[in-house]
Design a protein that fits this description.
Elements: H1 2-26
Subcellular location: Trichocyst
Protein name: Trichocyst matrix protein T4-C
GO cellular component, one term: trichocyst
Length: 27
């Protein structure tokens, strides 16, 4: 459903933000 798709998009954005934070921590 639409709600599920939105949740997936939010999860993808969250994972991308987490990845950016991890990269920043490494620097």
């Amino acid at each position: 459903g639409a709600v599920g798709e939105i949740q997936i998009l939010l999860n993808n954005i969250a994972s991308q933000l987490n990845g950016d934070q991890k990269k920043a921590d490494k620097v």
